[in-house]
Amino acid sequence: MDKNRLAFGKTNFILIAIGMAVIIIGLLLMTGPSSTTQAFEPDIFSVRRIKVAPIVTLFGFIFIIVAIMFKPKNNTKE
Q1: Whole-angstrom distance between the N-terminal and C-terminal Cα of the chain?
Q2: What domain range is 56 assigned to?
Q3: What is the pTM of this model?
Q4: Is 64 inside a domain boundary?
Q5: Which residue has the higher pLDDT, 19 or 44?
Q6: What is the mean pLDDT of residues 11-39?
Q7: Residue 19 domain-assigned?
Q8: Secondary structure of 24-73 in HEC code, one letter for each residue
Q9: Is residue 78 part of a domain?
Q10: Is residue 53 included in any domain, yes or no?
């Protein structure tokens, strides 16, 4: 298969993988103990779960969009 016919290059796949890792980190930051009917868990309103994790996840999605649109410089001469 000719490398010039591929939609994405190696750099694109690496950047997409980094974006996916950032999204997974953001989702892991959102996890934590949940409240039950017997006990209230005030950690559900922590800054990490309400503000930091969604921003990290959003940054990951934006990074993936940039990675998809990234076009490496073509240094081959014809």
Answers
A1: 19
A2: 7-69
A3: 0.81
A4: yes
A5: 19
A6: 92
A7: yes
A8: HHHHHHHCCCCCCCCCCCHHHHCHHHHHHHHHHHHHHHHHHHHHHHCCCC
A9: no
A10: yes
